[in-house]
Amino acid sequence: MVLNAEDIMSPLPPVLSGDLTVAAATEAMELEHRGFVLVGSNHNIEGIVTEWDFVSKILAAKKDPNTTTIREIMSTEIKSIPEDTPTRKVTVIMSRNGIRRILVGKNGKYVGIITSRDILRIFEDYVENVENIAGKYGLL
Predict the structure, then answer these.
(1) What pTM value is reported for the model?
(2) With contact defined as beta carbons under 8 Å apart, do 107 and 84 qualify?
């Protein structure tokens, strides 16, 4: 059975206004237990801010998180894939582009997101299945 992007994606988190301060966005990230926030308005995603953006564009740059907005530090080049993309291809795209999150689209709009955690979760299930099969044949 081939799993597609829609089988492993997570629902989209709330999209935050770009005018929100970095400090407020980190509170939203902590509340949602996520390493990123999506930036936009009216369900239109304009960018993404990750924990790496906070480290490299705020802490390392010595900017004030209470006055800097997430629009100022967001990445606007967002990778996306169709919902029927096979999981194997998803992992190749993420790996080759050095990204840990990718949006999933359907009928011209974003419907979910796949993170590296989602990939690890399905890999864990895969390894367990392989171990069970190998155990049946005395290969472990």
Answers:
(1) 0.84
(2) no
Contact 99, 52 (CB under 8 A): no
Taking a C-beta distance cutoff of 8 angstroms, is the pair 1, 24 a contact? no
Q: What are the structural domains of the chain?
A: 5-136 (3.10.580.10)
Check: CB of residue 49 under 8 Å from CB of residue 71. no
Residue 36, number of CB atoms within 10 A of its CB: 21
User: pLDDT tens across 38-81, in order?
Assistant: 999 877 899 999 999 999 999 999 999 999 999 999 999 999 99
* Tens-digit pLDDT profile for residues 120-137: 888 777 777 778 787 888
Q: Left, alpha or beta for 98 (phi > 0: left; psi -120 to 50: alpha)?
A: left
Q: Is residue 110 within 8 Å of 44, Cβ to Cβ?
A: no
Rounded to an integer, what distance in angstroms lies between the CA atom of residue 50 and that of residue 67? 18
